[in-house]
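Dear colleague,

Following up on yesterday's call, I've attached the two folding results inline so they're easy to grep. Please treat them as preliminary; we haven't cross-checked anything against experimental data yet. The first protein's sequence and structure tokens come first.
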Amino acid sequence: MSWPLVRKAVRDLRWTTFWYAFGMALFIFLMTSFYPTHERQQEQFVELLQQYPEFLFRIFGIDPTQAALFATFAGFMHAQTFGFIWPVTGLLFVVLSGTAVVAQEIERGTADLWLSVPIPRAHLLVSKQVALLSGILVFVLTSEVALAAGAFAFGGDITARGLVQLAVALTCFLIAFGGLATLASSLASERSKAAGIVGGLALLMYLLWVLAGLAEEARRLRSFSLFTVYDPQAAMLGELPWHKPVLQLLVGLAAAVAAQIAFARRDIVA
């Protein structure tokens, strides 16, 4: 790995990271400000939710069998942010950033210059992967700070254990799709194609997860979706099963290694 290249890749990614992280942190803090109102009206809120069809719950990442948890701060933030809005925003960030690592160099016509750096190809790609990882960590940590600040300011109940487990859950989720994004970028010559592949795969996984929750006959589909092991509500409650983030981390690392292999064997023409 080349630290000068890591620093350059971080600089190239800094404004994208900043705006995604800042926007999400602001949104999270804003959502926490509504919690006191929700807490005062939680009985009416739960009764109202029970009137909606299960399909709507599933689309927004909510398990309708756990309606009682909606009254908690963890349940409220899951329903308002971490069940749908956060993963969608995080996916946009890692897919657009991850698919740029190789494909964008080809599109810009700078691949020859990039490859002319006198270090192994593996070091070139791992430098950009490390920069992407740093962006993921910044995105997650700013979300955590906003959540903790909002909980403190507006009376939300979340423990240090819950914050740590949530950080692990969110980070591993983005690492999984970030690894897939770098793999697609190593295989494609256009960033749009690479982003389309990963975005389509993420959408397919999401739909499989929704369908698996709607019908008993489709429960086997859960095994084909990374959203099955994305469980921020359990994390905020400090009850996250550790096999879930570990599985996502393994997927991300395997994809990152596959990206290295594909990049090393590829004949790149800018």
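Below is the second protein, in the same order (sequence, then structure):
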Amino acid sequence: MAGRGATGPTDPRRRRDVGSGVGRALSRLRGSALVDLVLPRECGGCLRPGADWCARCQRALLGLAFEAPARGLLQPGAAPATVQGAAVVEHGGGPWVVPHPAPAGMPPVHAWGIYADPLRAAVSAWKDVGRRDLEAVLAPLLAASVDGALRGAGWADGVVVVVPAPSSRHAVRERGDTPMAALCRAAVAELTDRGGPVLRVAPALRHVRRVEDQSGLGTAERRGNLSGALSVIPLWHSVIGGRRILLVDDVVTTGATFAEGARALRAAGSGSVVGASIAATQRTRG
């Protein structure tokens, strides 16, 4: 009899592990003519064959933006999406999203757009299925959100430390890398020639205890799951001490990750903390 923690060939956890490993391998080979012959490319948003990201998904993606970003991601004449569920406050650089209810200690968080398909599918494929090629789609969105958060906070010069939300140890083992840190670097690289503050990416946060997968948890459970779960790695204390911090995650849902990350950073002596994310979920009061 299989042990309690064992997984069989039909166990969904096993399928996810295998799919993630295969996806990462194919992502490294993507662009090879030989691979395209054997396994044609498919869109990371709709799975249609032919391209890593199709024109149809690109048009749908642009319709999810909370506002027309300065980076020109919206086509001329395209209307920005309206926000449903999450409260959006126009403040300086753009939309600051506020979950309902907002957790204590959550910093102001800027988001590019609504977490709905095809963006939701792209984020899931990029993060969990190994489609790292979709970084080319997501990095400009995160760059626009980072840019908006900086402008909204009034941080026009000096140094800002960009801290990606950390992956759990289990996720790092399963994925084999830390996609959020890589995406932060790609987004910062897009902003290098735009002027403004100097941005330094610092993967300064770590998990200090085991946490459950947030995706299956409710609002209260998410906050309890992350409460006291993060700390600043000692090596990074001198880097974040007294500095302005931009905390980055892919999606803001309940705000639990941003609240806990900001708590850990402040406890380690950071200066002001604001947040940036690619997207915000359409949440109702709960």
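For the second protein, one point worth flagging: The CA atoms of residues 92 and 152 lie 4 Å apart.

Best wishes,
A.L.
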